[in-house]
Design brief:
Elements: H1 11-27, H2 33-36, H3 45-54, H4 60-80, H5 85-101, H6 106-113, H7 118-132, H8 139-149, H9 156-182, H10 189-204, H11 214-230, H12 237-242, H13 246-262
Helix pairs in contact: 1-4, 3-4, 3-5, 4-5, 4-6, 6-7, 7-8, 9-10, 9-11, 9-13, 10-11, 11-13
Amino acid sequence: MPKRAEPQISKTAGERAIAAIVERRRQVRDLDLEGLLRDVPQEQPVAVIRYVLTCQRVPDWVTSNDVIDALWVLAYVRRYFPHLPEEADRLERDLLELGCAKQIAMIRMAPPLNVRTRQAVENRILRHRAAKLGLARSERQERAHRLSAAPPRATSAEGLWYDRHALSLWEAASDLVRYRAKFDHLIDDELAENIIGLRRAVREMKWPLAQESYPTLREIGWWAQEIVDAVADERYAAFRQQLGEVLPRLTELTAQQHEARFGAM
């Protein structure tokens, strides 16, 4: 997995994010602000982040904007207070979960994390959830845990679809993995990470088809859909052109798989 690159945020930018949080709370007359101002907020960046997480007697729009600024403050903490890695990880996890609870668009949370896509933010969230469960810090581990913990679905539609299309899904996914090896120079680490996840799932698939294979097929479909969504971005245009018929075939198969599992949405 590529090493996470931290945003190169300046002290001025970090202090500006803190000031934005304080000013926003002043505007809505936050009753908890007095406690934060007992010290100089710019000198207590971690306390500012905890304040955003715990003091939420304010309108949702305030909290939502505070989360984004607090993520920038966290980037500032990671750079200038590197002796707090575990605390920084916990704060990042809690801020991202608060962002999810407030339905903040994941793409808005991407810049402070130094990533560029919704998928990358989601993967970061899943890695935090896996670590909280005591698993390896991997979105794949979290997803596997979630699938194993979920009650079995008594649906024949999914099984019938796999009887007819599981091999086609697996073959299309395998073709996409091979394209990554041929055209690695046309993609970045974010897309490569998703294709690596797909490759793992493809390799784990056992034949002949059995009901025990369904979780692996679901994971193949999940990764494939993430990649289909990602390659629509203009920066992957050159790679997308090389995929030929693989992309529309995989797009159709993952859409059918989703409908077979969950019905028409």
